[in-house]
Specification:
Layout: H1 3-23, H2 34-44, H3 50-62, E1 80-85, E2 102-105, E3 109-115, E4 124-126, E5 132-137, E6 146-151, E7 155-160, E8 168-173
Parallel strand pairs: 1-3, 2-8
Antiparallel strand pairs: 3-6, 4-5, 4-7, 7-8
This protein binds copper (II) ion.
Copper (II) ion binds next to loops.
């Protein structure tokens, strides 16, 4: 039996096991039983068969000494999105638009409005004609206050601030 290729393959295997343990999960060397180490050694010396050696690897995997992470596709999750009520939003003559003015999000997204202006504002959902509807309606938001609403259904949602009704924003849910 030619020993060299076998020794080399053991080295490669040990090396790949350490790569696995480094890159996938930490495997504690102290949790590798003595008989496993001996089996690896004896396999290198041609004393134990390849089958026994592979059984030993199987033992290490089954006993979570070698931890293989299963590849799991990330599940798309609803994201949180912010709409900033910027400084100067109250000023009818200024830019100060909601940022973004039309927020586009997937269904299930929680939207947070943040009042970055120096005066209070509120968020009132309105219908196509500009009439307030009870869908998402915030109390007055002081500077730094936040208001959240989760959009579960597709559609184009309009809102305004009842204190400054010239400020109209959109949330488009697809
Ligand atoms: Cu306002």
């Amino acid at each position: 039996m030619n020993r060299l290729p076998k020794v080399a393959s053991v080295l490669i295997l040990v090396f790949s096991i350490s790569i696995v343990s480094l890159s996938i999960n930490f495997a504690n060397a102290e949790s590798v039983p003595e008989w496993v180490k001996n089996t690896a050694l004896w396999y290198g010396e041609g004393i134990v068969s390849e089958g026994e050696f592979l059984n030993m690897i199987k033992f290490l995997i089954e006993n979570k000494v070698i931890v293989l992470d299963s590849i799991v596709e990330p599940i798309p999750q609803a994201v949180n999105s912010q709409i900033i009520i910027p400084n100067g939003n109250f000023d009818v003559t200024g830019a100060g638009f909601y940022s973004p003015l039309n927020l586009e999000i997937p269904a299930g997204t929680t939207v947070t409005w943040v009042n970055d202006d120096s005066v209070p504002h509120n968020i009132q959902s309105i219908d196509a004609k500009g009439k307030v509807i009870q869908l998402f309606n915030s109390p007055p938001l002081n500077t730094g206050d936040r208001f959240e609403f989760t959009f579960d259904d597709e559609g184009v949602y309009k809102y305004y601030c009842s204190f400054h009704p010239w400020r109209v924003g959109l949330v488009t849910v697809s």
